[in-house]
Amino acid sequence: MITHRPTTHRPIRLVARAAFAAFALLLSAAAPSVAAEPTAAGLWQRTDNGKPGGKPVVWVLMLDRGNNMYEGVVAKSFPQAGQPNLTTCDECEDDRKNQPILGISLIRDMKRKGRVYENGNILDPRNGDVWKAMLTVSPDGQTLTLRGYLMTPALGQDEDWFRLPDSAVSQLDPEIVAKFMPEQAATQAAQAGKPVAAPGTAGKAKAPPPAHKGGAMAPAR
Fold first, then answer.
1. Are the beta carbons of 176 and 60 closer than 8 angstroms?
2. What is d(CA 221, CA 207) in angstroms, rounded to the nearest whole number?
3. What single-letter DSSP state applies at residue 195?
4. Which uninterrupted H or E stretch holds 26?
5. How far, in Å, CA of 201 to CA of 102, rounded?
6. How far apart are CA 7 and CA 109, in angstroms?
7. Does the CA dihedral 32-35-38-42 come out positive or negative?
8. pLDDT digit string, tens, across residues 1-35
9. Strands 56-64 and 116-124, how do they pair?
């Protein structure tokens, strides 16, 4: 009598398929979490006491410049009692010299690595100093921690900024919106039935009160 050995190929194939399906499911589950990771792009507020309920000092608009590079510009500033206003960066020594504070490139060269942004720098408009800096976005995307430092991050200090709602864009100078947020400018113009404000003159003719001396945009020493 001839007997046949049971084949083992089918069970092996089934196990392999199950393993592949489980791996594919794991990848599909991980992808949304990466895509949903919060970004530094958007409008942030610095307050006088470093807390959400403090008085506003400056609004900074963080821009995605592509290739994981980010820049921050002064979108609005608020006068502080007893302190003089600073209208232009007279002490700047680079391409920002004598530029209006409103719209000035405050944060540069931030390279994104997840929720952390490294190897960047921040300008102190009061004296033209440029500090090394890094940024960290909180897991919920509502707090941006700036760390300004001299040589290494270990020798720096942290400062928290707070995300503003999309509705805050309506409080910005139209020229700032037109220059840095053209899509929002077009939407606002369409809703109001008005032409889009021409960029390029923000901070020169009718800028809101600029950042102040003593203040507040540079990291604490």
1. no
2. 29
3. P
4. helix 9-35
5. 10
6. 62
7. negative
8. 555 555 555 555 544 565 555 545 444 444 444 45
9. unpaired
